[in-house]
Structure formats: structure tokens, C-alpha cells
Inverse folding.
């Protein structure tokens, strides 16, 4: 007999089953179409052989379960998984199957960039959204309207990597990437990002996907012989594991090396064999997208780990990564988009009208639902996504902060972050959408080799080669550089000022730099090599550096890099001194330059002419015979030179001109007196020439140092090449200057200031430096273009120059520059005054006199305008005006003054007659006729005037008048 409880339980189960079956078959039978479940098929294409695909597979299943559990809608999303088997054709075949046989309305995947490239083209043809986690930047969202990138492109991390490189002041890096579209896609973006921080990519190492360990090892050995010690690795985990194992074997995971891995490896570091991490990846830096921690993520991680272990029990070490979280958020976003679009019936694929001659792709038709779905997917946001704020804008997933990690032990340790707005940060405080920084530096990093001191990024190659340093050998001026070769061992030794500075600089470097000197001969023959040839040896990679008296020039900097200069420099000339100028009979002409003498003389004549024009009609001193008038023009102006002019001027215009001119003459004479006094009283070392242009004018020969760039400078200064003579020693300089141009020598030596000062220190009593000085940058050490050693050497140069060592080495090679008491350290220029110093004075004098002359002419023409108004010819008018100008002007004021003088003379005469009546008859008998002058030097119509007694009265000041005066005084 059955148990009543069991019988009741069986009936209850049957009842529930019947109710559930009825609810299931009601929509299918069409009894309630409004409540029917709408099925939306989506395709999932993954490389199920990879760890990342398995992680994403589990996340996709959980995403759909969570969506269906949280949304009681009438839409059910059904995934259809296909395995692409790491093959592009398999991926394309899977896509065609899903579109043709299943008629999916969207496809998630594939993972690989090459596979995605095929599937995107199919999606564009069928109008089905392709949501792919492929990271290659070569896949363009803008060019493919149905492509949605559900992962950050690898190019978005390049600025974070560049920021790390800049943070440690590394100047060069090596990029290691795999030979695939995924690998090559990042290179141009990474190169540009590094260039923005003034970092060069010294080498690009391409690793083939089929490369064996020996090939990888050979490539690493090749990189190890280079100078750069900073490597950026962009490889997939399988190939990257082999690379680091070989790098450990090659000795490249020790102190002094820096390795940075990209996000594709950092994000799935758990998929790498732990033994590889512990043995070969210690101290490596990595970047990966930052995923903020949350309760939702912690709960999901537990669920995911449990589900993953059930499906893949043999992969216990695999952990959830950002690619799985992106897959979860992508499927969630797709489900939300389907829910918004699919409120009505889900349309099927639209087949082509004709079935003739159709390819498999044409037979697929187009999806009307995909056309609606892509509009929602291109711009969608999940504020509570597991990966953080999941934003898709214009089909592209927006970047999030990048986390910088340091691989230590079996795992990683966070050392900082990078965000586009603020750059490198130590910590992030997530407050909604903002991120605030506590510190702009990274945390403590354990570098390869266990060192906490960051690598310099550059070292001498470990191949055993030393730094090949070229040094010039020229047989002279050995104080700067001297090269000796041991006859037995052939060892090269470099000494001199430049060599000692370089040795001290190398010792001050923060790392050891072994060097060997290689001599470079610079001979006297015209076809021999010069300093430019020495510098270009670096361009041809024969030398690693050049040390010597090499001047920093713009033309050379196009091909090489210079350090900071360790000497000052410039180009000037040295000429012999001449005898004391005070013995020269013509020294009185020296204070003024010839052009100033000529200008002054011309103005004297011009001012005299202007005064004559203004005074000719009204002043009898400026009238008379032509010879007298010409003489007056020169006499009046030149007499102002010593302020000896006695002629009275009557015109206000003339007074104005004379006042200005007297001031100009005062300044000129004062300046002339001061300059002449200086020449006569001050003992100076006077050069034979004071300007290099004088050498060109006089056709003098010019000497310069053999192999120097000064030859090109002289050519640009318009010197003739036939006038050049080159020398190598200070003694040759001395001999050439003593001989002079006429005896096979030179008139001047043109060279750089360091050499000239050395020459003057030895021959200071015989020669002197003349100006001007043409500036140059000085001597510097030479390195290849873009060499990371340049900033280190430049800093060491500054350190050496600021210390006591520089003073000691100068004293060692050049002695005490104050040992020559008569040497004048200043560059000598001409003491003669030039026209430029008085241009303002002459301008004032010219404007004032010219203005007075123009004013006079205008007044004169206005007064005689009736002549200009006649119908006569121009010549007749000019003749009439000239005749009037030559006539004396009737000045009523002058006449009244004359009459007053005559009346005064008459009164004096009458007084004398009354006082001495007995004298005048006798005087009259002795001087029958006495005429009176009108005081103006010209005789009037009657030369005397008659008194009532009938005799003429003499003018005061005549001998007769003086006689009367004397007689009066005697009485």
C-alpha cells in the first residue's frame, strides 16, 4: 500500500508540470501573441583554444544570465558560439554560417585583428553590427559603419608608455613587436608619442610568430651590442614568454636594463607560466587599463571563478581579466540595445529579389534589425559596468586610466597610474567621474637585477668595444690637443687642454665609459682633410665621438650633436703694433675720419653761401666786386671755426642760421680737441689696421689656422681666396706677421679667440687684437645625432667648469694670463671720430639753414610777383629777378640812422667853429676840400655838404677831426 504522502506529492508534481507546459505552449500556439517571447539570435566568434577566449566565454554566459534575471521582458537573447580556431578563414566561415543559417542580428568577436578585418567587411555587406575586442588601431571605426570596438585600441596606451620614459629621462628606446597586423599597428603611434617627449626609437625589432628560440636569441644579442637599454615589448603572451626566457639567458635581465610591457601582456599576466615570471620577468614594468574595485566586481569575480572552474577544471591558475569584463559589459550593452529596438516584431533578413548568379555573400541578404541596432550601439553608456564607466562613443570604447605595475615575485604590484589629463600619478581617488592626484611620481620600483636605482637607459655595448674617440693631429697648437703614438705598442695618448677636460668629464659621468683615441691627421696640403671631415666621421659611424678644439657650428649640427661648450669663442684678428703716432707730422688729421672732414668742409661752404644769399641785398659787407663776394662766402663760414667773424649781420634769418652753426662748430671743435689731446698725451699700442675691411682695400694677405672653418668665414667677408695663407703653429703666426704681406707674410692673422689669446700671451709686446669680434658658440665634444650620451656629458661639463679643476687646467696649459703687463685685453678699434657721431648735428644745421634759405626765396618771389606775372619768357624772368637780387635794397631804417649821424657831425663842427675861430681858416686853407662819408662805404650824389659859411665838415674819425680834437684838448 502506497504512502498517502507520496501519492499527494506525485499529484502535486504532475499539476505543476501541466501548468508549466500550458504556459510554455500558449505563445507558441498563438493564443496570446502580445505576451509571446521574442528570440534574438546573436553570434559569438572566439578562439576557444586561447585562455582569453575561455575567460570571455564564461563572462558572456554570465552576462546573459544576469540580464535575463534582471529584465522580465519578452525578448530573449540566444547566443550561438563558433570557434575560429586561430584562423582567418575559419573566422570568416563562422561569420557566414551565423549570418546565413542562423541569421544572427549581431556578432561579438572575433578576438584577433586579422580575423576581425574579414568579418567587418562581411558585417558591412549584410548590415549586421560586429562588436569586436580586437585592439589593433589599424581597424578603423570611422571607415566601417557597422564596426563597434569593445576594447581599448593598443594605441591608447602609447602616451602612458611615453610618460614613463619621460619620467626617467630616457632618450632612446627599442621597440620589440611581433610580425603581425596586431604588432605593427602600434609602432607609428608609439613612435609619435615618444617623439613628443624628445625620445627616439633607436631600433625596431620584429619577431616572427614562427621564430624559434635560436632566432630570438640572436636578435637579443644584436640588441645587446647597441647602446640603448630601454625596451618596450608588444607581444602576445606565448611569444613574450619565450622572449623573456631568452633575454635572461642573454644577460639582459640584470641591473642597468629597463623593460616595459604593453597592456595585452600585462592584463593577462596570469596566463603566463609562473616559472617564467619568477625567473625571467622580475623588475619589468607594465601598463594595463585600470579597473576600479567595487562590491559588484568582487561578487561577480566569485561567481565567475566558480563557473570557470566547473567548465575548465584543468585551468586553475587563470584569473578574471579586463578582456572578460569588457566582454561582459559589451553583451550587457548589446542586450539593452536589443531591448530598446525590439519592442516590435523582430524583422528577418531581407533577401535579394533575384536568385540568379548570386554569390554566397549576396545570398545572405541584409538585416533590417541590424540597421536599427547599430544606431543604439554606436553611442551607449553603462554607468555601473564591471570594467568601470563603460562608454562607447561613435563606435569606440573611451579610454580609462592606465595602471602602472611592477612585476615582483609571482605577481604584480601597483606603482602608479596615468590619465590623459594629469599624466603620471601615484594614487587615484575616484570620486564619481573625477580623478585627483596625491603625488606626481611613481612609487618605489624594483628594477631588473634587484636594484632600486632606475637605469640610465644607455650603456657602452657589452660586445667589448670601447667608445671610439677621434682626435685631430695637426702638428701645432699642442696646448689644446696633442696626440702621441707609442712606437712599440702603438697605443694612442691624447693630452692638452681639450683632452684633459674630456677625461675629467668622463670620470664625472654616473657610469663607466671606456674610451680609445683614434688619431685623425690634418695636414698642410690643399687636398688634405679638415675639421669638417673629422666631424663627418661620426656620421659614417667610424667614430663614436670627437674630442678636440672643434667649434660648434650650425652647419655641423645638422649631422651631429654637440655638448655644451667648455670654452668661450669668437673670431677676431691680430695685427702688428706700429711706432708711436705722436711722431707723425700729420697726426693733426687723425682725430677725424676722412668722411667727417669732407662733410664738415662742405657744410662750411654751404653755410657761407646761405649767409651771403641772406645778406647780399641788405649788407654792404657782402656786396662789391665778385672776388670780394666769393671771398666773403669762404671767409665768413670758416672764420666761425675760431669764432673770429667780425662782420655784422642784419637779417633775422641770418642770425638764426649763424646761431645754429656756431653751436655745431663748438661741438666739432671740442670733440676734435679732445681726440687730438688723447692721441698726443696717452701712450697706446696702436695697430697697423683697425678694421678687417682695411685688409681688403689694401690687398693684404690674411693668415688663418690650417683646417679651420675660418677660411669659409673669410670668403663670406669678400676676401679673395688668393690672399689666404694657412699656418699651424704660433711661431708660424709670428714669422708671417713680421714679414708682412709684401715679403711673403700676412698683414693679419684671423682666428678664434682661444688661439689668439694664446698667441698674444706669448707675443704680447709685438701684436694687438683688433675688432670687430664675430661670435661663435665655442668648443664642444661631438657625438652622433640623437645620442643619449649628450645630456649626460653636458651636465658633466657644467659640473667640471664650476669646480676648481678648470682653473688648474687653464693654468697648466696656458699659464698666467697676467704675466704680460703691457697686453691690453680689450679689442682695439679706431680712435678717430666718424661721421656717424655727428649726423644729428649736421642734420640740424642743414635743416635750419635750408629752411632759412627757402623762407628767403619765398619772400623774395612774393615781393617781385609782378615780374612773375608778366608774359616774358622764363629766361627773361630769371634775368630780371637776378638783376633785382643783385641791387642793393633801399632800407629806410639805414637812411634814418645815416641822417642822425650827419646831424651829429654838424653839431660838432659848429661847436668847434665857435670855440676856435682862428684855427678853422688856416685848416681850410690847408685842406681845400673835406668830404663827409655816409658811413656805409659808398659815396652819395654829393660827397659833402656845405655849411652856411661855405665849407665842408669832415666826418668824425677823419684826420681833420682828430686834429681839432687834439687842439681842443691842448687848450
Amino acid at each position: 500500500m502506497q504512502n498517502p504522502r507520496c501519492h499527494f506529492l506525485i499529484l502535486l508534481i504532475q499539476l505543476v508540470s501541466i501548468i508549466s507546459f500550458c504556459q510554455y505552449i500558449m505563445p507558441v500556439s498563438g493564443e496570446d501573441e502580445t505576451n509571446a517571447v521574442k528570440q534574438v539570435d546573436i553570434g559569438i566568434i572566439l578562439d576557444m583554444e586561447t585562455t582569453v577566449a575561455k575567460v570571455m566565454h564564461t563572462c558572456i554566459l554570465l552576462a546573459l544570465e544576469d540580464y535575463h534575471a534582471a529584465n522580465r521582458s519578452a525578448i530573449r537573447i540566444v547566443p550561438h558560439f563558433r570557434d575560429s580556431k586561430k584562423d582567418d578563414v575559419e573566422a570568416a566561415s563562422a561569420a557566414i554560417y551565423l549570418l546565413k543559417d542562423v541569421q544572427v542580428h549581431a556578432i561579438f568577436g572575433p578576438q584577433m585583428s586579422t580575423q576581425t578585418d574579414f568579418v567587418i567587411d562581411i558585417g558591412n555587406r549584410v548590415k549586421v553590427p560586429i562588436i569586436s575586442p580586437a585592439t589593433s588601431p589599424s581597424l578603423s571605426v570611422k571607415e566601417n559603419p557597422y564596426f563597434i570596438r569593445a576594447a581599448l585600441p593598443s594605441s591608447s596606451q602609447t602616451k602612458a608608455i611615453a610618460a614613463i620614459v619621460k619620467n626617467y629621462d630616457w632618450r632612446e628606446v627599442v621597440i620589440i613587436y611581433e610580425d603581425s597586423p596586431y604588432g605593427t599597428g602600434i609602432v607609428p603611434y608609439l613612435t609619435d608619442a615618444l617623439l613628443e617627449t624628445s625620445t627616439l626609437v633607436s631600433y625596431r625589432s620584429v619577431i616572427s610568430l614562427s621564430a624559434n628560440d635560436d632566432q630570438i636569441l640572436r636578435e637579443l644579442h644584436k640588441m645587446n651590442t647597441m647602446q640603448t637599454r630601454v625596451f618596450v615589448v608588444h607581444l602576445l603572451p606565448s611569444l613574450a614568454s619565450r622572449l623573456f626566457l631568452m633575454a635572461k639567458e642573454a644577460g639582459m635581465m640584470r641591473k642597468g636594463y629597463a623593460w616595459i610591457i604593453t597592456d595585452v601582456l600585462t592584463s593577462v599576466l596570469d596566463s603566463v607560466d609562473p616559472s617564467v615570471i619568477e625567473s625571467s620577468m622580475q623588475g619589468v614594468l607594465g601598463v594595463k587599463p585600470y579597473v576600479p574595485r567595487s562590491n559588484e566586481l568582487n561578487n561577480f569575480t566569485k561567481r565567475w571563478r566558480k563557473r570557470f572552474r566547473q567548465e575548465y577544471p584543468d585551468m586553475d591558475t587563470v584569473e578574471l581579466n579586463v578582456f572578460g569584463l569588457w566582454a561582459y559589459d559589451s553583451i550587457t550593452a548589446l542586450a539593452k540595445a536589443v531591448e530598446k529596438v525590439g519592442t516590435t516584431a523582430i524583422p528577418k533578413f531581407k533577401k535579394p529579389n533575384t536568385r540568379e548568379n548570386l554569390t554566397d555573400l549576396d545570398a545572405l541578404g541584409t538585416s533590417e534589425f541590424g540597421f536599427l541596432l547599430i544606431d543604439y550601439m554606436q553611442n551607449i553608456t553603462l554607468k555601473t559596468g564591471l570594467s568601470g564607466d563603460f562608454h562607447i562613443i561613435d563606435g569606440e570604447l573611451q579610454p580609462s586610466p592606465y595602471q602602472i605595475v611592477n612585476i615582483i615575485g609571482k605577481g604584480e604590484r601597483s606603482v602608479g597610474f596615468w590619465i590623459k589629463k594629469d599624466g603620471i600619478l601615484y594614487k587615484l581617488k575616484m570620486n564619481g567621474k573625477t580623478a585627483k592626484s596625491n603625488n606626481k611620481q611613481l612609487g618605489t620600483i624594483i628594477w631588473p637585477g634587484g636594484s632600486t636605482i632606475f637605469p640610465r637607459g644607455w650603456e657602452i655595448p657589452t660586445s667589448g668595444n670601447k667608445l671610439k674617440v677621434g682626435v685631430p693631429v695637426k702638428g701645432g697648437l699642442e696646448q689644446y690637443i696633442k696626440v702621441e703614438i707609442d712606437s712599440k705598442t702603438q697605443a694612442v695618448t691624447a693630452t692638452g687642454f681639450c683632452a684633459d677636460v674630456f677625461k675629467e668629464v668622463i670620470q664625472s659621468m654616473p657610469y663607466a665609459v671606456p674610451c680609445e683615441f683614434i688619431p685623425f691627421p690634418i695636414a698642410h696640403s690643399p687636398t688634405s682633410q679638415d675639421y669638417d671631415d673629422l666631424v663627418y666621421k661620426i656620421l659614417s659611424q667610424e667614430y663614436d665621438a670627437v674630442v678636440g678644439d672643434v667649434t660648434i657650428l650650425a652647419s655641423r649640427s645638422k649631422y651631429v650633436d654637440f655638448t655644451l661648450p667648455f670654452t668661450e669663442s669668437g673670431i677676431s684678428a691680430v695685427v702688428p703694433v706700429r711706432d708711436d703716432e705722436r711722431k707723425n707730422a700729420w697726426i693733426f688729421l687723425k682725430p677725424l675720419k676722412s668722411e667727417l672732414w669732407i662733410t664738415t668742409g662742405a657744410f662750411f661752404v654751404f653755410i657761407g653761401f646761405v649767409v651771403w644769399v641772406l645778406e647780399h641785398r641788405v649788407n654792404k659787407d657782402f656786396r662789391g666786386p665778385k672776388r670780394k663776394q666769393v671771398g666773403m662766402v669762404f671767409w665768413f663760414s670758416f672764420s666761425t671755426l675760431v669764432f673770429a667773424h667780425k662782420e655784422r649781420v642784419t637779417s633775422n634769418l641770418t642770425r638764426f642760421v649763424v646761431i645754429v652753426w656756431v653751436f655745431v662748430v663748438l661741438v666739432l671743435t671740442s670733440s676734435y680737441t679732445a681726440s687730438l689731446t688723447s692721441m698726443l698725451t696717452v701712450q697706446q699700442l696702436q695697430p697697423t689696421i683697425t678694421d678687417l675691411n682695411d685688409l681688403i682695400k689694401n690687398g693684404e694677405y690674411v693668415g688663418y689656422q690650417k683646417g679651420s672653418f675660418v677660411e669659409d668665414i673669410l670668403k663670406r667677408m669678400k676676401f679673395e681666396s688668393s690672399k689666404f695663407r694657412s699656418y699651424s703653429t704660433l711661431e708660424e703666426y709670428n714669422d708671417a706677421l713680421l714679414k708682412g704681406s709684401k715679403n711673403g707674410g700676412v698683414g693679419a692673422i684671423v682666428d678664434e679667440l682661444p688661439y689668439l689669446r694664446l698667441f698674444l700671451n706669448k707675443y704680447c709686446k709685438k701684436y694687438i687684437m683688433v675688432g670687430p669680434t664675430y661670435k661663435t658658440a665655442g668648443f664642444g665634444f661631438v657625438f652622433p645625432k640623437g645620442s643619449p650620451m649628450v645630456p649626460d656629458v653636458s651636465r658633466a661639463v657644467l659640473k667640471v667648469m664650476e669646480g676648481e679643476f678648470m682653473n688648474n687646467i687653464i693654468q697648466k696649459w696656458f699659464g698666467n694670463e697676467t704675466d704680460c703687463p703691457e697686453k691690453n685685453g680689450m679689442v682695439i678699434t679706431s680712435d678717430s671720430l666718424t661721421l656717424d657721431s655727428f649726423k644729428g648735428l649736421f642734420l640740424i644745421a642743414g635743416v635750419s639753414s635750408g629752411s632759412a634759405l627757402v623762407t628767403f626765396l619765398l619772400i623774395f618771389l612774393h615781393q617781385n610777383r609782378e615780374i612773375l606775372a608778366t608774359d616774358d619768357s622764363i629766361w627773361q624772368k630769371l634775368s630780371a629777378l637776378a638783376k633785382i637780387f643783385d641791387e642793393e635794397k633801399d632800407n629806410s631804417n639805414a637812411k634814418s640812422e645815416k641822417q642822425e649821424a650827419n646831424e651829429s657831425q654838424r653839431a660838432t663842427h659848429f661847436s668847434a667853429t665857435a670855440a676856435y675861430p682862428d684855427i678853422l681858416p688856416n685848416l681850410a686853407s690847408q685842406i681845400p676840400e673835406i668830404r663827409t662819408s655816409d658811413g656805409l662805404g659808398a659815396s652819395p650824389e654829393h660827397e659833402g655838404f656845405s655849411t652856411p659859411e661855405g665849407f665842408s665838415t669832415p666826418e668824425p674819425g677823419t684826420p681833420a677831426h682828430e686834429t681839432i680834437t687834439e687842439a681842443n684838448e691842448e687848450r
